[in-house]
Amino acid sequence: MACTFETYLKDQNLSLNTxxxxxxxxxxxxxxxxxxxTQNLRDYKVFLIExxxxxxxxxxxxxxxxxxxxxxxxxxxxxxxxxQQKPFLENVIxxxxxxxxxxxxxxxxxxxxxxxxxxxxATGARISELLxxxxxxxxxxxxxxxxxxxxxxxxxxxxxxxKEAIQWFKDTNYQSGFIFINKTGKKMTARGIAAQLKHYANxxxxxxxxxxxxxxxxxxxxxxLDRYNDISMLADLMGHESIETTRIYLRKxxxxxxxxxxxxxxx
Length: 267
What we know:
This protein has 14 helices and two strands, in the order ααααααααββαααααα. By secondary structure, the protein is mainly α. It has a two-stranded antiparallel ribbon with strand order 1-2. The relative contact order is 0.10.
């Protein structure tokens, strides 16, 4: 019996969010068109362009192209649409605000959330990857992740964070297993972590728009390049398929651009 598209996606080691997104696109296509044909695919792309933002259009196109792979129709793949990138990074927490945020959490003995923020910003992990960290990974200093096609990505844990986390484990009798779990012993959800970070942002009078899990991954990339200007190595650390994806971190944030303008423009 042939596997379903969802089962096929799970076999590709894709994240749960990606699987849900791709299955939604398959369902949306099938609700509009009875058959998988090149004309219907072109019509679906037009429908997407007329109703969604370019980023969403490209996400759905990637989903349908994956469905075409599953259906052995790779030659029918759709091309993505061009998106105009902004010349600056948006909604990235500044290094000063990051330091202030983690120091406030530590001061108030909110050590669980202190380490959520520390691990995100010091490893560059995605939220889904953060939830994979175990005590055992901290002790060896890295987490190995395998992406589609069996490609290995190693997420390193800096020695300072490693030492600090191990002491926390001792203080709280954390001996093994997943680090970021809830009161029932189950892994935290991405939504739950994001909501709690917003709560603390508001508590400490930070702009909640820049306090979300992926913002700390951006912070990792920006801070890394500021200290060690090797974009090729950063691409590997971030797990980017193309170095072009990583080049966005060479841009300044809009806040940084404003500060430079204020300092430079005196005419």
